[in-house]
Write a structure and sequence with these properties.
The protein is built from 9 helices and 8 strands. The chain is of the alpha/beta class and 315 residues long. It has one domain: Rossmann fold (3-Layer(aba) Sandwich). α4 packs parallel to α5 and α4 packs across α9. The relative contact order is 0.15.
């Protein structure tokens, strides 16, 4: 489809069911809105149900709301049970919600906020909903990462919750690296089933309310420069939409803006950091995530095969 992929290229989504986390604002809102406009039945999975209803009212199509607080495993389990009771299938699970550069704090379960929300929350939600996807041909789990996954790129197994020291940027980078490692390991596990695939995306630098936790010394300069160095949430949502709907997308692929340094532009296939492709670390992170969340996935242990940077995981 070339480098100018837009919402016009989104195939007809009628008959498909999409669950989008963090869909009341920003990238999630634009993603959900576009899917609904193309005919999908969309569930906005949001922390604030009232704001979710307000967002749904601004969309066209079949849009409903499900309360979901990714900072609480109890809330995740409650939301998953509610979705299972009302849906008989899920075609698209879009793990979009996230927090960025938060002050040092923990989730309800004692996890560092960024790792707990961005990675562990979505890990648990996906595991609890995946059996609604496995029977559905063409179903996809799309997880939103960030160019920030390259920041001090590592999974700090010796201090996952940043209890000994804390860096907002490094903790964010760990959570976004975890998003990619989760995608790649999930795809390896899904390959044996042949129906559902796992794909990742990142929005480049988009002008969303994630900026609210930027340190004060940087907030004003970033605000001034925003029109020059960022793109709109609608543009930032395009890589996610392409990952979710492009008929040519393969499991294990990663989409981002096609412009210089992946900051702006129309979505294309991109490559994540070398660290993100380390299979042994992916599998260790998976095991730790299962232990921390108590969620086991209905998919088999992955094989030890690796894959080259920028390529889809071998099916």
């Amino acid at each position: 489809m070339g480098e100018k992929w837009t919402t016009v290229n989104t195939p007809d989504q009628r008959g498909r069911v999409a669950v989008v986390t963090g869909a009341n604002t920003g990238l999630g809102y634009e993603t959900a809105k576009a899917l609904a406009e193309r005919g999908a039945s969309v569930v906005l999975a949001v922390r604030n149900a009232e704001k979710g209803k307000q967002a749904a009212a601004r969309m066209t199509g079949d849009v409903t709301v499900q309360a979901l607080d990714l900072t609480s495993l109890d809330s995740i389990r409650t939301a998953a049970a509610a979705l299972r009771s009302r849906l008989d299938r899920i075609d698209l699970l879009i793990n979009n919600a996230g927090v960025m550069y938060t002050p040092k704090q923990t989730t309800a379960d004692g996890f560092e906020m960024q790792f707990g929300t961005n990675h562990l929350g979505h890990f648990a939600l996906t595991g609890l909903l995946l059996d609604l996807m496995l029977p559905v041909p063409g179903s996809r789990v799309v997880t939103v990462s960030s160019t920030g996954h390259r920041i001090r790129a590592a999974i700090h197994f010796d201090d996952l919750q940043w209890e000994r020291s804390y860096s907002r940027a490094a903790a964010y980078g760990q959570s976004k690296l975890a998003n990619l490692m989760f995608t790649y390991e999930l795809q390896r596990r899904l390959a044996a089933h042949g129906t559902t695939i796992a794909v990742a995306a990142h929005p480049g630098v988009s002008n969303t309310d994630l900026i609210r936790n930027t340190p004060a010394a940087l907030r004003l300069p970033v605000t001034w420069l925003a029109p020059l160095i960022t793109q709109t949430p609608a543009m930032g949502a395009l890589p996610t939409l392409r990952a979710a709907t492009d008929p040519g997308a393969l499991g294990g692929q990663y989409y981002g803006p096609g412009g210089r340094n992946e900051v702006k532009g129309h979505p294309r296939l991109v490559t994540s950091s070398p660290e993100s492709y380390e299979v042994a670390v992916q599998q260790r992170l998976w095991a730790v995530s299962e232990d921390l969340t108590g969620v086991k996935f209905p998919v088999v242990q992955s094989q030890q095969n690796s894959f080259s940077s920028g390529a889809a995981i071998p099916m």
